[in-house]
Amino acid sequence: SVDDEQFGGGAGMVMRPDALGAAIDSVKNRGKIIYFSPRGPRLNQHMVREFAADADVTYTLLCGRYEGIDQRIIEEYDIMELSIGDYILSGGEIAAQVFVDSCVRLIDNVLHGGTESTANESFEIGGLEWPLYTRPSAWRGRKVPEVLLSGHHGNIERWRKQQSDAMTQERRPDLIKENEK
């Protein structure tokens, strides 16, 4: 069995160190190990950029199950714990997908448009992205703001900045405080 009841009692099974240790030991080039856990720092775009930029480092992603993993595994392998948010998932697989997707999309030529595709996104610009529009220019009586159709790049940039600032203030004021640090 790969899991057992926790010492001291309590609900939930814990992944056993002997089984998990054998699995980790079997990985030839494991590099740094990341375990997705609510106890770790919360993943943010700044951290993602650092992970993605470090092309020489291999990461092994450890996805927990049940109640978690035996603490001795974390200590034995000097595992970095990382959280993706303040909520509980059934396992670490979804967290690993979030980590991989957020890092891979920053690699050159992964996204159409290269680095320009990611440069103006939320969290890269210090706040939320502005409202986006595409064709048709009018839909069900709703029109695209005239400034976006004007071709005047300076005015468009000012409009985007104003919209981004207003949306961030309204919906995520915590981001403004983070950027002031």
Q: Helix count, per DSSP?
A: 8
- Indicate how many domains the architecture comprises: 2
Strand content: 5-15%
Q: Any low-confidence stretches, pLDDT <50, length ≥5?
A: none
Feature tags:
181 residues, alpha/beta, Alpha/beta knot, Trp Operon Repressor, Chain A, 2 domains, three-stranded mixed beta sheet, three-stranded parallel beta sheet, 13% strand, elongated
Q: What's the layout of helices and strands?
A:
Blueprint (H helix, E strand, L loop, with lengths): L2 E3 L7 E3 L1 H9 L6 E5 L8 H9 L5 E4 L5 E2 L1 H6 L3 E3 L10 H12 L11 H4 L18 E2 L2 E2 L2 H4 L3 H19 L1 H7 L2
Parallel strand pairs: 2-5, 3-4, 3-6
Antiparallel strand pairs: 1-2, 7-8
Helix pairs in contact: 2-4, 7-8
Task: Walk me through the structure.
With 181 residues, this protein is an alpha/beta fold. The chain has two domains: 3-104, SPOUT methyltransferase, trefoil knot domain (Alpha/beta knot, 3-Layer(aba) Sandwich), CATH 3.40.1280; 120-179, Trp Operon Repressor, Chain A. Helices cover 39% and strands 13% of the residues. The chain contains eight helices and eight strands. It has helices at 17-25, 45-53, 71-76, 93-104, 116-119, 146-149, 153-171, 173-179, and strands spanning 3-5, 13-15, 32-36, 59-62, 68-69, 80-82, 138-139, 142-143. The strands form three sheets. The protein has a three-stranded mixed beta sheet with strand order 1-2-5. It has a three-stranded parallel beta sheet with strand order 4-3-6, with no helix packed on it. A two-stranded antiparallel sheet has the order 7-8. A hairpin with a 2-residue loop joins β7 (138-139) and β8. α7 (153-171) packs across α8.
